[in-house]
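User: tokens in, sequence out, please.
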């Protein structure tokens, strides 16, 4: 199986804080990989490195065979990113923003279709700063998908969404995966990991403590119980 994301021996400190301590994992092509771990485990730091936004102190990251920190614009266009806080410009209206982003890509998704599928229609003409947290999440997800990227990093994509919106997002992510994209999704939801993930990576204290399918990681105890056992001592 082709490994689209390879993280090997990643180390990173913020002053005295060790954020990543020899972290290694892979995400396979055309699969959804869910990254689970307690607050402060190092998920965001690691995902920012895979996105090319942060340079590790040591270790290597490869995305589509390239070092994301040194990658050119052509590589970056193949990678979609949904940041935890959205990172959206407050004064822009969602449809205008998505149309603008679509124009930057060679083979963009259909903006009207994305807007309809993620239930953005109702607020497509309202400035981002006036939107609720869940509405902004949906726009941020659409922005990550509009360029039809081959690899997509999503930091807690359904946090704060109501059940209908969450279901819509899961269906859309399934479809994007079925079209061949590789997705890496960080989440605090066992239900989300069980529903979506072909593979689960559990991180704690900057290291991977389990990696495999939901069944392989959860075993007979189940994912939730196994997670608590693996991460108990970090609380
Ligand atoms: N810019 C920064 N400066 C200093 N310390 C940081 C910075 N970013 C993260 N840290 C620290 O690094 C560690 C890992 O943080 P990170 O945000 O990567 O964890 P996380 O697993 O994404 O957490 P969460 O689930 O809360 O999003 C934490 O101890 C955090 O306080």
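Assistant: Sequence out:
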């Amino acid at each position: 199986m082709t490994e689209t994301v390879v993280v090997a021996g990643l180390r990173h400190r913020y002053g005295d804080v060790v954020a990543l301590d020899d972290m290694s994992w892979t995400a396979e092509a055309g699969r959804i990989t869910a990254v689970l771990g307690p607050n402060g485990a190092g998920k965001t730091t690691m995902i920012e490195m895979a996105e090319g936004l942060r340079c590790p102190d040591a270790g290597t990251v490869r995305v589509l065979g390239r070092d994301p920190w040194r990658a050119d614009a052509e590589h970056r266009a193949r990678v979609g990113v949904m940041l935890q806080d959205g990172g959206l410009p407050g004064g822009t209206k969602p449809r205008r923003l998505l149309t603008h982003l679509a124009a930057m890509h060679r083979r963009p998704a259909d903006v009207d279709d994305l807007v309809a599928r993620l239930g953005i229609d109702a607020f497509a003409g309202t400035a981002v700063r006036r939107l609720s947290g869940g509405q902004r999440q949906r726009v941020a997800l659409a922005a990550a998908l509009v360029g039809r990227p081959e690899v997509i990093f999503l930091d807690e994509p359904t946090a704060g969404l109501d059940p209908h919106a969450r279901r819509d997002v899961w269906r859309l992510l399934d479809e994007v995966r079925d079209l061949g994209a590789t997705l890496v999704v960080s989440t605090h939801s066992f239900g989300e990991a069980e529903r979506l993930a072909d593979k689960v990576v559990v991180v704690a204290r900057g290291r991977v403590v389990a990696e495999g399918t939901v069944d392989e990681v959860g075993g007979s105890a189940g994912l939730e119980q196994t997670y608590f056992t693996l991460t108990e001592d970090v609380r």
